[in-house]
Design brief:
It is a single chain. With about 375 residues, the protein is of the alpha/beta class. The chain has a domain of about 260 residues: 3-Layer(aba) Sandwich (Rossmann fold), CATH 3.40.50. The strands form 4 sheets. A 9-stranded mixed sheet has the order 5-4-3-6-7-8-12-16-15, sandwiched between helices. A 3-stranded mixed sheet has the order 9-11-13. The protein has a two-stranded antiparallel ribbon with strand order 1-2. Helices cover about 35% and strands about 15% of the residues. Helix 1 packs across helix 8 and helix 7 runs antiparallel to helix 12. It is built from 12 helices and 16 strands. The N terminus and C terminus are likely disordered.
């Protein structure tokens, strides 16, 4: 029997079927993997978590439980999705181990998206970053082991690579906890793995909605440093990566999408050109925030030596135990820099195409900010 592969899990509801046998191919997810499962999404009312929930519901799981702290966002989510028997909205915090133990009862699969994600707020509140991003991840691991969950997938960040700020350090530690958990599970078969994101363009806290709103107000656009570069991915790409990781994970891997990088100044100028209606909009340099890097990295030099390169992603394996096997039939990545400064920078035309292809470029400045707020 052939597996069902889908670019979006929503294709399951529209008869979208593919005949390929490889799950790993670019943009394909084995949607049947999620059918009938009991799934928990921590931080499920955030930008990425909410889209994961929406895609999962199309795959007809038995239930999706959403654990988050924000009752207002849960109310909005309930209103958007309507009354359904296959979703449960749970108020709770990953800092609370007992709450997690209750939430994970009977669960097969966990997507751990709950985190403090903003560099500046973590820099000024590092104790809180530790409690949520590190201890919260430890709590998810312990509760998952208690209930013998099948798989747990952590959403991480490229800021975990050679980190210079509290947020990046806390996400690196969360990745290491997830990898190490595979060695402390004893007789249990729970699989723990991570996915590493770049900047999810258009998500809450990203520069896109900020730039659009600043253009809508007549400017200026505030740019931290004209030389700054970032890896970018769309929400669709982020969710596809997470779902593919859930299918592929065997224990301890970090899955990283092959992403282009952009100069933030180029992104600002593309938006001005498209949305300002011919009006001049100033760009003002405001300087880097505490802990903010000029360039990000996808992989460290050490990680390259224990990674496998597939068509659309890198898979980094645990340092211990060391292995030279390539389980997914890929090849070793070239030994070079994976910095956003030099790795696949795209120009303005390609940025414009990317934004249009992903539905992220509003057609007019008059309704741009409103449209983005609705999308987020």
């Amino acid at each position: 029997m052939k597996k069902q592969h889908i670019t979006s899990l929503e294709e399951m509801g529209t008869g979208g079927r593919r005949q390929e046998d490889d799950t790993v191919g670019a943009g394909r997810v084995d949607g049947s993997f999620f059918y009938g499962k009991r799934i928990l999404v921590t931080g499920g009312t955030g930008t990425v978590g909410r889209e994961i929930v929406r895609q999962l519901l199309a795959a007809r799981p038995e239930v999706v439980r959403v654990l988050s702290r924000d009752e207002t966002k849960q109310h909005q989510m309930e209103h958007e999705l309507g009354q359904r028997r296959d979703i449960r909205l749970l108020i709770g915090d990953v800092r609370d181990l007992e709450r997690l133990r209750l939430a994970l009862e009977g669960i097969d699969l966990v997507f751990h998206c709950a985190a403090l994600k903003h560099v500046k707020s973590c820099e000024y509140n590092p104790f809180e970053a530790v409690k949520t991003n590190i201890i919260g991840t430890q709590n998810v691991i312990l509760a998952a082991l208690d209930h013998r969950v099948d798989k747990v997938i952590l959403t991480s960040s490229d800021k975990a690579v050679n980190p210079t700020n509290a947020m990046g350090v806390s996400k690196l530690m969360a990745e290491r906890l997830m990898t190490a958990a595979n060695g402390m599970r004893g007789p249990r078969s729970t699989v723990f793995a991570s996915v590493r994101f770049g900047n999810v363009v258009g998500s809450r806290g990203s520069v896109l909605p900020l730039f659009v709103e600043q253009i809508d107000n007549g400017g200026p656009i505030t740019v931290t440093d004209p030389a700054m570069t970032r890896f970018v991915m769309s929400l669709r790409q982020a969710v596809t990566l997470v779902l593919k990781a859930a299918v592929l994970a065997r224990g301890g891997e970090v899955f990283t999408l092959k992403m282009p990088s952009v100069r933030i100044i180029d992104l600002a100028e593309v938006l001005i050109e498209r949305l300002a209606g011919g009006q001049a909009v100033a760009i003002r340099r405001v300087g880097r925030q505490p802990g903010e890097k000029l360039h990000e990295e996808l992989l460290t030099a050490e990680e390259v030596s224990r990674s496998e390169m597939l068509e659309d992603m890198f898979v980094t394996y645990p340092a211990l135990p060391s292995s030279r096997r390539l389980p997914f039939g890929g090849r070793r990545p070239p030994r070079r820099s994976y910095s956003s400064r030099s790795n696949g920078i795209i120009g303005r035309a390609e940025i414009r195409n990317f934004l249009e292809r992903e539905g992220l470029l509003p057609c007019s400045p008059a309704n741009a900010a409103v449209a983005l707020r609705r999308a987020l």
